[in-house]
Amino acid sequence: MYHLADKQKRLERDFFTRDGITLAKELLGKVLVHETESGIIRGVITETESYMGEEDKGSHTYGGKRTSRTEPMYHIGGTSYIYLIYGIYDCMNIAAMTEGIPQAVLVRKVEPADEISRICMEELRMKRASGRCASVAKHLADGPGKLCIAMGITRELNDMDLVESKTFYVTEGIALQPEEIGAGKRIGIDYAEEAADYLWRFYIR
DNA sequence: CGGCTGATCGTG
DNA sequence: ACGATCAGCCGA
After folding, report:
1. How does DSSP assign A115-148, residue by residue?
2. How many angstroms separate the CA of A158 from the C1' of B10?
3. The pTM is what?
C-alpha cells in the first residue's frame, strides 16, 4: 500500500509535453483520478509502456498512420487516447510531446490509492464480470483492460485533455528513486520485429 | 508461475 | 481479417 500526501497537486501541461519514454517513467507513482457518479476513483500507476511515434513498429501510428482512431496520439501531451482492443476491452493511453508528434504512454497497471477507490474498483469489476469472479480482488487493475474497467474508463473519455478536465486527471502521488524503476519488453507486440525487444515497459520494483 | 484458448467488434 | 487483453484451466 502506498502512502500519499494529503494535498495532491494536479499535474500540469509541462509534465506531459515530454518524450514518451521520460513520461512513461515519470508517470510511475503518480495517481490517475476519475471522478465518477459513484465516487472518486484514484489509482497509483505502477506499470507503463512507451509508444514512440511513426518510427515505432509497435505503435498504432507506425508509418505515419494518422486516422480518426489514432488522432488523439497526435494531440498535445496530456490528451487521452482510449481504444478498443480485441473487441472487448478498452486501453488507456496518455499522449506525450506536442501536437503532431504521436508518442504516448499506455497505462498498464494501477493499485487503488485508498480504501474508497478499492471498493469502487471491486464493484465495477464484479459488475462487468456479471457474477462471481474469484480473481477480481487479487487482480483488481493489473492490466490495461482490467484497469479501465476498474476505473470506469471507456472510449467516451477518448481525446480528453487531462490537464483541463474537472473529472479525469493525474496528481503527483509518490516520489520514486531511479533504482525503484524496472524495465522490460513491451507486451503483446510480437509482430513488431526488432521493436518488440526494446525495453520500453516500465514498472515499480 | 508459464502456456494455452475462446470471446468479440471497431477499424481500415 | 485482425488485434498494445482477460479469465479459466491445465501442469509443474
Report:
1. HHHHHHHHHHHHHHHTS--TTTTTTSS-SHHHHH
2. 14
3. 0.96
